[in-house]
Amino acid sequence: MAERGVQTVKLLLKKAKAEGNDPYRSLMNLRSTPLEDIGASPAQLLMGRRIRTRLPTTSQRLQPQMVTKTVQQLLETRQQKQREYFNQGTKALQQLQVGDTVRMWQQGVWNPAQVTGLSEHPRSYVVQMPDGQTYRRNRKFLRQSRDNQNVTQQNECDKIQGQSEMDMQSKNVTPTEFPSSPP
């Protein structure tokens, strides 16, 4: 936003110099031109009234008028619209619990880590790497890992497999191998 303002002023001064006009008059015209979304000029916002320019105008239009409340309402409306447009494509990430296994984005790679606590900052967690280092990371740099689910599923599979082996031993049944491809 500021860069655009600097660009506008530089262009204005170049044109004034090229045409041989007074640069201060050009700046005065820029300051007295109403802003598009607010409806008031920068000078009007600063001084509470319109400034006298080379254009003829009535003295009544030069009387002080406070436009701050109107401008403040317009700015709040514009910010609300920007917030709505920004949030259209977003979704809230699921909160992590202490002890969850996660993947942490670090130097271009997703590394395994574990959540050890919540941070005092919003949406931030304290995570510990397998080598013992702890970091505070924002939720957008943490992905919930399926390692928790895989460990649980693996433990359940081991239990089931252990039970089936015990059943086979109790029945004196020897396991047979099945061919990997049909005959």
Q: Which features does this protein show?
A:
183 residues, alpha+beta, five-stranded antiparallel β-sheet, 5 helices
In short:
GO terms for molecular function: nucleic acid binding. This protein folds into 2 domains: 2-80, no CATH class; 99-172, SH3 type barrels. It is 43% helix and 16% strand.
Could you give the order of the helices and strands? HHHHEEEEEH
How many alpha or pi helices? 5
**Computed CA radius of gyration, to the nearest angstrom:** 34 Å
Mean pLDDT rating? 81
What's the count of strands? Answer: 5
Task: Name the shape in a single word.
Answer: elongated
| Secondary-structure content class | alpha+beta
How helical, in percent, are the residues?
40-55%
Tell me the number of structural domains: 2
Strand order of the largest sheet: 4-3-2-1-5
Low-confidence regions: 150-155
Q: Outline the biggest β-sheet.
A: 5 strands, antiparallel
How much strand content do the residues show? Answer: 15-25%
Tell me the distance between the termini.
74 Å
InterPro entries: RNaseH_sf
Region (Disordered): 144-183
GO molecular function: nucleic acid binding
Biased composition (Polar residues): 147-183
